[in-house]
Amino acid sequence: MHVWSLTTHAVRRAVAPLAVATLAAAALTAGLVAHQAGPADAAAATRKQIAAAPAIRHVFVVNLENKGYDQTFGPDSPAPYLSKTLRAQGQLLTQYYGTAHNSLPNYIAQISGQGPNAQTQGDCQTYSDFVQTGTVAPGQAVGNGCVYPSGVKTVADQLEAKGLTWKGYMEDMGSPCRHPQLNSADDTQKAKVGDQYAARHNPFVYFHSIIDSPTCAQHDVDLSQLTGDLGSVSTTPNLSYITPNLCDDGHDSPCVDGRPGGLASADQWLKTWIPKILASPAYQQDGLLVVTFDEADTNDPSGADACCGEGPGPNAPLPGIYGPGGGRTGAVVVSPYVTPGTWNDTGYNHYSLLRTIEDTFGLSPLGYAKDARGFGTEVYGAGK
Questions:
Q1: How far is CA 4 from CA 11, 38, 72, 253, 355, in A?
Q2: Which DSSP letter does residue 334 get?
Q3: In terms of CB atoms within 10 Å, which of 125, 168, 174, 192 comes out highest?
Q4: Rounded to an integer, what distance in angstroms lies between the CA atom of residue 28 and that of residue 2?
Q5: What is the number of domains present in the chain?
Q6: Contact indicator for 171, 188 with CB cutoff of 8 Å
């Protein structure tokens, strides 16, 4: 579990063994090498991570769609802004994994820690109620369906309960808190010209605790509101969860509006929006940006690989349908507290991301986040 700077890695290949040892020692002194911890001291490592986490108060999460690590971050990547420009400004998590197939259960995992079921694995073609028959550890609702009952909580509920703020920014959503009619067909499964919003990429509308709340329309909004909210620290939520539309997130290729889609269109979207986030007062004061993908390509034989001890859940023997997880996607983390130009081969997945958000704001871990490793000293390698 090492964190290397790009420059150090290149030099390392060319120097003699003694010089390698010297470089490694220097990197360790500089805080660029991750703390190594085995399963036996996982609890101690978690406590250390929480204690070491910097004073981040604004987290920005951007999800793209359906691309494996090699395609996105390989030498021939069609996403140069993400794979080169943004990567150079932060840290590349080389062993970040999705947790399921298809799209929806990955998004649900990121905000609730709930594992998939047959309906969510099928992207909930019918926007049906989740019928719960019980609960098993760690905090897993047993049953099947799409819209979880009000007793199943999300990080959004946790933030509100603590007096903190959140917003979901959904491109092309139009009216706030938009979702299909309950127990009816989801009419957002396919993009339309002028409307490429997909409810299944907006996890907040799959929880009754959110959609039944009178404040849903204030929190789950169109992406167009983000620019104004970034204008000051006071108007920027503690958690900003951002989903591009079906073209700009790389899902469709080509797109219904004639654009190429895939990583090319996703990279153009990032090139437009990420600089706005990085220039915002809230990010510059105490921000953390995470850009990742919901899942790897299901056409890849290894696209359902998993990490971090993920296994069968109570509602899905194979979370990845044809494997244990959602495949290796990678992620880029940028923050004033992260050393630019580094990468990290520690294993993380979407439950790790949820755990990181919860640790950041002092919240109790939900669902599978309870057993996940959040970001610690191996990520936060720079003092502000």
A1: 11, 20, 19, 34, 24
A2: E
A3: 168
A4: 10
A5: 1
A6: no
Count of positions (residues) in the chain? 384
Amino acid identity of 184? S
Rg (CA), the chain: 20
Cα 72 from Cα 50, distance rounded (Å):
30
Q: Which domain holds residue 204?
A: 55-371
Is there a domain that residue 1 lies in? no
pLDDT in tens, 318-333: 999 999 999 999 999 9
User: Cα(118)–Cα(105) distance, rounded to whole angstroms?
Assistant: 10
Output phi, psi for 71, to 5 deg: -70, -40
- Residue 375 backbone dihedrals phi, psi, to 5 degrees: -65, 135
Both tokens of 240, joined, read: 């900003």
Q: What pLDDT, in 10s, does the model give residues 79-90? A: 999 999 999 999
At residue 80, what are phi and psi to the nearest 5 degrees?
A: -65, -30
Pairing state between β 131-136 and 342-349: unpaired
Q: Name the nearest CA neighbour of 352 among 160, 96, 155.
A: 96
Residue 61 lies in a domain: yes
Tokens describing residue 272: 């437009």
Output the pTM of the full model: 0.88
| Domain-embedded: residue 60 | yes
Task: Output the six-digit token pair for 346.
Answer: 């520690």
User: Residue 295 belongs to a domain with what CATH number?
Assistant: 3.40.720.10
Separation of alpha carbons 199 and 173, rounded Å: 8
- The β-bridge relationship of strands 239-243 and 166-170 is parallel
> Does residue 134 lie in a domain region?
yes
pLDDT digit string (tens) for 217-244? 999 999 999 999 999 999 999 999 999 9
